[in-house]
Amino acid sequence: MQFEVWAPQADRVTLQCDGVASALERDPERAGWWTGEASAQDGSRYGFALDDGPVRPDPRSRRQPDGPDGPSAVVDHGRYDWRVPWPGRALPGAVLYELHVGTYTPEGTLDAAAERLGHLAALGVTHVELMPLCPFPGRHGWGYDGVALWAVHEPYGGPEALKRFVDRAHELGLGVVLDVVHNHLGPSGNYLPEFGPYFTDRHHTPWGAAVNLDAPGSDEVRAFLLGSALAWLRDYRLDGLRLDAVHALADTRAYPFLEELSAAVDALAAESDRPLFLIAESDLNDPRLVTPRSDGGLGLHAQWNDDFHHALHTALTGESQGYYADFARAPFTALAKTLTGGYFHDGGWSGFRGRRHGRPLDRTRIPAHRLLGYGQTHDQIGNRAQGDRLSAALSPGLLACAAALTLTAPFTPMLFMGEEWAAGTPWQYFTDHPDPELAEAVRRGRRREFAEHGWAEDEVPDPQDPATRDRSCLDWSEPERAPHARVLAWYRELIALRHAHPDLTDPDLTDIKVAHDAEAGWLAFRRGDVRVAVNLGKETAEIPLGTRPARILAAWEPVRGPGEDGLLRVPAESCVVLEQE
Q: Boundaries of each Glycosyl hydrolase family 13 catalytic domain copy (predicted)?
C-alpha cells in the first residue's frame, strides 16, 4: 500500500505501520511530500515519525480508533456495500434539522441516532444537519474542537457507523449535511504544526494563530482542506456541508479559499451527477458570499441568517442584552425587515458593534432559499449560561407562533433537535477534556464569561461534569405526552403545508408583503395567496385582511376567516395560516 505525507520541514520521515518501521523517500514531483510503500490492509495501525521524533497520526487520517493522540488506521472505503442508490436532494425546498449525535439519544452514537431517523421522516424534514463528527479528546463534546479533519469520532462509531447512518437516512429519503470546521482546530491533539505551516502568525483569531490560507505553504493547506471537504461528500455520500464561522477564515489572496471550495464542490456534483451544496455560517451580512461565482460572488449555496433569529427571539422574549439590543428597539420592525429584505443589518448602524454593518442583499438576484431561517440553533441555546431552550420560558402558543414564522417564512427553514416537540431538556455546553489543566481552564473560562453578565458561578453548569451532557440528552418519552404531542403535531402540519403549497417555497423576496402592530402584538405577511398571521399579545388581535373569501389551512387555536368587516380575529398567543382568493 502507498503511504504519503506532506512534511516540508523534515529531513527524515519514517513510517510506522503495524509495528514495522520503514523510511519514506522524498517525492521528486511534489515539493515537501514523502512517499513509500508498506504492507497494510483495512484496520492497519500506522503513523509518521519526523526526524526520529515521536510517532504522530497521519494529518489525513481516515480513522483514529484510539482517539486523536493514538495511531491512525487504514480505511478501505471500497469495503462498504452501499444499500441505497441515492440521486441526491437539492437545497431549494428543503427543511433542515440540526442534530448532535452525542445527545440525540442517551447512547450518543450514530447507530442509535439512525434508529430514530424514522421520527424525522414522519416529521417531514428533508435533510439532517449533523454537528461536527471529527475526532476530539474524550468521549462527549460539541465537536468544534476536532483535530483530525478527515476522520469520524470513534465513540460515535467511526467511519462505518457514519456510512450506516447515511444509508438509513437515504433509505428514508433524507439528505445528510455535515458541519465542518476549517477556521481552527482544537487545543488538544493537534499535531499539524509539527508537519508543516498549517497555521500562520500573520493573522490571529479567537483561537490563536490562523489557519494558513495565504502565507507561504498555503497552497498545500488549502489542498488539505479542500481534500477533506470533498472526501466527506464523496466517500460518505453526504449531500452538503455546513462551514463553521467562515468570517474567521483570514484570507487575503485574490482567489479566496471559499470560492475555490465552491468551485471544487460544484465540479464534484457534476462528476457524481447529484446536487451538492455548501452552507456558510457568517456574521458579515455580505451577500457576495451566496452570490454565484459567475456574478462575481464566492458561489456558496446558502448561509445561516442570524438576523432572522435575533429579530424573532426579541419579539418572542423581549430580551435585549448583547447583540439582541439592535433588534430589541423595534423587534416587529426588525422581523418585517428580515422577512422582506433578508438581512436586518444591511449597511446601517449597529449599536452592538459601534459601527455600520452589513451590505444590502439584491432581492431581485438572490433567491430566499439561500438564507437559512431558524428560531433555535445549537449556538443560540448552548451559548446561554444554562442552555435553556425557548420552551423553558414561552407558552406552547408562543412556541407555535415561532414555528409558524420559521416554517412559512421565505427562507430555508432549519430546526434544532427537540424543538419540534418543545423539548423540556436543556442543551448545555459540555466537554470531556482528559487533560486536567485544559479542563480547569475551560471550566474557569465559562464561569468567568457569564459572571460578567451577572450569573453566579454556581448557576453556570460545569462543562466537565458528565451530568451536564446527560441533562442535554433528548427525552424520547416527551413526544407522547402533553403539551409536547400537540406541539409536535403542529410542526408536522406546518411542514406538510410548506411542501404542499408552492407559495411557501417561492424564493422571491420581492413578492412578500408584511404588516404589523407592535402595540397590539401581531404581525402578518403575504406569500402569494397564502396569509400568515401571528398574535404574540395577551389579547385577541384584530388583523385587517380584507373581505375576500379565505380558507383556513392551519390554526393553533380555532379561528374563522375574516368577517364582513375584513378583520381576522386571532386569539392571544396563537397563529393561523390561511389561503385567500
A: 94-448
Closest CA to 491 of 399, 372, 392, 373: 399
Take residue 132 and report the three cell numbers written for it: 461536527
CA distances from 511 to 356, 504, 506, 522, 548 (A): 28, 11, 9, 20, 19
The contacts of residue 85 (CB under 8 Å, 6+ apart) are: none
What's the number of CA atoms in the CB half-sphere (13 Å) around residue 318?
Answer: 7
Annotated binding site: 242-247, 306-310, 378-383
Residue 115 annotated among the catalytic residues of the structure:
no
CA-CA-CA-CA torsion sign (70, 76, 79, 84): positive
Whether the Cβ atoms of residue 176 and residue 189 lie closer than 8 Å to each other: no
- AA letter at 172: L
The amino acid that residue 178 corresponds to is L
Helix (H) or strand (E) holding 449, with range, is helix 436-451
Task: Please give the Cα distance from 26 to 35 (Å, whole number).
Answer: 6
Q: Note the pLDDT tens digit of each residue in 456-492.
A: 888 899 999 999 999 999 999 999 999 999 999 999 9
- Please state whether the predicted TM-score (pTM) of the whole model is above 0.85: yes
pLDDT above 90 coverage of the chain, percent: 95
Beta strands 550-555; 574-580: pairing state: antiparallel
Among 244, 420, 432, 478, the active-site one is 244
| Helical ranges in 10-135 per DSSP H | 101-104, 110-114, 117-123
Which residues contact residue 500 at a Cβ distance below 8 angstroms, ignoring those fewer than 6 apart? Answer: none
Identify the CA nearest to 339 among candidates 531, 528, 512: 512
Assign 578 to helix, strand or coil.
strand
* Residue 472, φ and ψ in degrees, nearest 5: -85, -5
Using CA atoms, how far apart are residues 313 and 522, in angstroms rounded to an integer? 15
Active-site entry in 281, 283, 326, 542: 281
CA end-to-end span of the chain: 68
| Dihedral pair phi/psi, residue 393, rounded to 5° | -125, -20
| Radius of gyration of the chain measured on its C-alpha atoms | 25
- pLDDT recorded at residue 456: 83
- Binding-site entries for substrate: 242-247, 306-310, 378-383
Is 244 in the active site?
yes
pLDDT digits (tens, 9 = 90+) for 531-560: 999 999 999 999 999 999 999 999 999 999
The CA angle 254-193-227, to the nearest 5 degrees, is 55
Among 155, 205, 202, CA closest to 185: 205
